[in-house]
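Entry 14. Structure prediction run on the chain below.
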Amino acid sequence: MNHITELGQHFGYPFCHGGTVKDPEFGDLRPCSDFVPPAQALGAHVAPLAIKFKSGNMFPASYNGKAFVAEHGSWNRSKKVGYRIMLADIRNGEVQGMEPFIDGWLNDQTQKVTGRPVDLLWMKDGSLLISDDYGDAIYRVTYSDTQVALN
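Output returned:
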């Protein structure tokens, strides 16, 4: 995840990936130290396809300033990663931490995949839609005082 703070910043592509990994083809042309490091490093191959900040009033104010990250997941690793929605706690432009918000589309033990989150959309009622191109589904996430529900 990158955070643009001024015009003209360069985050490394195609020379450097994730702030520290030299590209095999272009990495010798410029060192990673030439570029702005990521605000938050994400795991290799998690494929973050969507990042959206909380919108609406259904979720409590404690979710304000937090970013929801749809990790589509890896396809070319022996041990798969991603396949979840992560929640990034962002305060004063700095990522304070990340934690899973919704997971379960990947069974870590069996490596069986049942879904791959693609995009996120906040609805006018404050619920969150998650598209899944593996499960051919759209999930609606709602919040009440007693639970977060995935429909």
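The radius of gyration is 17 Å.
Filed with the rest of this week's runs.
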